[in-house]
Amino acid sequence: MPNKMRFYRFFKYMLSCAHQNSTGSWTVNIEPSFCFRTPEAFCFAFYDQTHQYSRLNIEIQEMKKEIRIVTMPF
């Protein structure tokens, strides 16, 4: 059963693994969402210093009573 603690543990682990597989420091860009394609959706794209494409994407859609989060490439 999912809960907040399991989500935060998974989220922290995912960021840690992506950071270990990166080279150099990270930068974060806020970009339009690829999955949701709505005005209230956006994507956090994490880039490192050497790779052209993002190392981790976190797509977020805010709604009235919920927040949807999609992680890529996982």
From TrEMBL:
This is Uncharacterized protein. It comes from Robiginitalea biformata (strain ATCC BAA-864 / DSM 15991 / KCTC 12146 / HTCC2501).
